[in-house]
């Protein structure tokens, strides 16, 4: 179980490194972080929430979880949340779509490497078997 978790984390890390090479992914990451920062700043200033509570609300809202433990109480907060949700959810969908594509590509690449490795091992075994047979046949022919 732990090995599976560690391998999954490794695959996600590989996918993030692969995705980071793409300028579109870097731009999306920047926009997502800016959106979270802007929302956190807004809710801290307008709703009077603490920094952590503001960030928590932003993440929970954009992830469409919405536990209901926090909700904007001011008119400005409610209006901002409406706009924030429409823009932020679209950004998160685009971000996770790019990340999923990078993860799939990394898995394809890993499978291709494994396949090549298995083929190389198979070729080496075949060569060794042929060499042994040839050497064994040559020895049998010399003794006759």
CATH topology value: Helix Hairpins
Strand content: under 5%
Between the first and last Cα atoms, what is the distance in angstroms?
60 Å
What gross morphology would you assign? Answer: rod-shaped
Strand pairing plus helix content: what structural class? Answer: mainly alpha
From the alpha carbons, calculate the radius of gyration and give it in angstroms: 28 Å
Structure, explained:
Helix 1 crosses helix 4 and helix 2 packs across helix 3. This protein has a single domain, classed as Helix Hairpins (Orthogonal Bundle). The protein has 4 helices and no strands. The radius of gyration is 28 Å and the shape is rod-shaped. The longest helix has 69 residues. With 144 residues, the chain is mainly α.
In short:
The protein has 144 residues and is mostly helical. It has helices spanning 2-20, 23-47, 51-62, 75-143. The protein has one domain: Helix Hairpins, CATH 1.10.287.
Topology of this protein?
Blueprint: H1 2-20, H2 23-47, H3 51-62, H4 75-143
Keywords:
single chain, Helix Hairpins, 4 helices
């Amino acid at each position: 179980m732990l090995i599976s978790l560690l391998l999954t984390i490794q695959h996600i890390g590989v996918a993030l490194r692969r995705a980071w090479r793409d300028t579109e992914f870097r731009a999306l990451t920047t926009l997502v972080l800016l959106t979270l920062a802007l929302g956190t700043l807004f809710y801290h200033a307008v709703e009077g929430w603490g920094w952590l509570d503001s960030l928590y609300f932003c993440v929970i809202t954009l992830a469409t979880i919405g536990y209901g433990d926090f909700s904007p109480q001011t008119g400005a907060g409610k209006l901002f949340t409406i706009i924030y949700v429409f823009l932020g959810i679209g950004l998160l969908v685009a971000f996770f779509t790019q990340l999923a594509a990078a993860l799939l590509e990394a898995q394809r690449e890993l499978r291709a490497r494994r396949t090549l490795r298995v083929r190389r091992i198979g070729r080496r075994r075949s060569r060794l078997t042929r060499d042994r047979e040839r050497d064994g046949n040559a020895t049998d022919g010399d003794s006759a």
